[in-house]
């Protein structure tokens, strides 16, 4: 698979993450598109209900072999060579790419987390590590950006969990809510299965939203002033997802009835605010 095909995957996804890449220089935009395509391919393998779990695991194992090898292996995935080139170009830790696969492997078994600490490990693998790789491709140099990437990744993933809580259970019976917290707010799996948006649900979702807000605040506080230009794409992601979280919270989390999203005007406004803030500085 070529860089052009990787860019096509990124464009076709219509993701909020992909939307933010337009601010990058052309070479970095191509490279982040390759990385995004890798994440998309790995996630699609793990999430394909039409494929038996053991076959999904085999496909992920093949990716682990390809990423760990310095040269091509027989019958490796089409994108593998391009990803290895990316790793070499930016001297990226191979372990980061394996961590992302390990996070997606967690989706192959019954998805259930007892505590936030358990769920945090999953969020770190599928979101924070994505941030740690992204800041390298964005050109960040200050080591303090690492904690910014970790906490922003946690905030974005919690926002995704809140948005997709109904869809995740309906499609694959996945529950990305700590069972300990579900019990604390008196919201059961049966309630979730029935799509009950009652007071217990609202309290539980507000608790998750406030956790995400806390990580958004931490990330903004941790962002070094010297890296404000290089993290423009990341800040666009933050602005869009944080605005989406605020919108869901204000409207009472109608996540069972619809897939909550921002319209084009709202996204454009988020982008404009970030760019204007960069210009003023």
Task: Give the averaged pLDDT, no decimals.
Answer: 92
Largest sheet, described in full?
none
Which stretches of 5+ consecutive residues score pLDDT under 50?
A: none
- SSE string, helices as H and strands as E: HHHHHHHHHHHHH
Rounded radius of gyration (Å) = 19 Å
What is the CATH C level class of the largest domain, in words?
Answer: Mainly Alpha
Explain this structure.
- The structure is a single chain.
- This protein has helices spanning 3-13, 16-19, 26-47, 53-68, 80-90, 94-105, 116-138, 145-172, 179-184, 189-194, 199-222, 232-250, 264-280.
- With 281 residues, it is mainly alpha-helical.
- It has 2 domains: 1-109, Orthogonal Bundle (Farnesyl Diphosphate Synthase); 111-281, Orthogonal Bundle (Farnesyl Diphosphate Synthase).
- The protein is globular, with a radius of gyration of 19 Å.
Give a short overview.
Helix content is 71%, strand content 0%. By secondary structure, the chain is mainly alpha-helical. The protein folds into two domains: 109 residues, Farnesyl Diphosphate Synthase (Orthogonal Bundle), CATH 1.10.600.10; 171 residues, Farnesyl Diphosphate Synthase (Orthogonal Bundle).
């Amino acid at each position: 698979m070529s860089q052009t095909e990787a860019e096509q995957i990124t464009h076709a996804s219509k993701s909020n993450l992909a939307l933010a890449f337009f601010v990058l220089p052309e070479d970095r935009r191509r490279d982040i598109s390759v990385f995004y395509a890798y994440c998309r391919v790995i996630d699609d393998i793990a999430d394909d209900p039409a494929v038996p779990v053991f076959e999904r695991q085999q496909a992920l194992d093949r990716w682990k072999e390809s990423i760990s090898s310095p040269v091509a292996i027989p019958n490796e995935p089409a994108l593998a060579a391009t990803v290895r080139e990316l790793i070499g170009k930016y001297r990226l830790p191979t372990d980061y790419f394996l961590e992302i696969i390990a996070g997606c492997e967690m989706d192959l078994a019954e998805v259930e987390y007892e505590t936030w600490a358990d769920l945090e490990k999953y969020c770190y693998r599928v979101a924070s590590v994505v941030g740690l790789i992204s800041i390298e491709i964005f050109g960040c140099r200050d080591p303090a950006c690492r904690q910014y990437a970790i906490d922003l990744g946690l905030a974005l993933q919690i926002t995704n969990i809140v948005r997709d809580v109904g869809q995740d259970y309906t499609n694959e019976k996945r529950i990305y809510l700590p069972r300990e917290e579900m019990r604390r707010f008196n919201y059961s799996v049966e309630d979730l299965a029935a799509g009950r948006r009652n007071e217990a649900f609202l309290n539980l979702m507000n608790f998750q939203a406030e956790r995400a807000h806390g990580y958004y605040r931490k990330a903004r506080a941790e962002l070094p002033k010297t890296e404000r230009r290089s993290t423009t794409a990341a800040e666009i992601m933050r602005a869009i997802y944080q605005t989406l979280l605020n919108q869901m919270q204000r409207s009472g989390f109608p996540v069972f009835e619809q897939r909550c999203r921002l319209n084009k005007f709202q996204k454009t406004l988020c982008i404009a605010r970030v760019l204007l803030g960069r210009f003023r500085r």
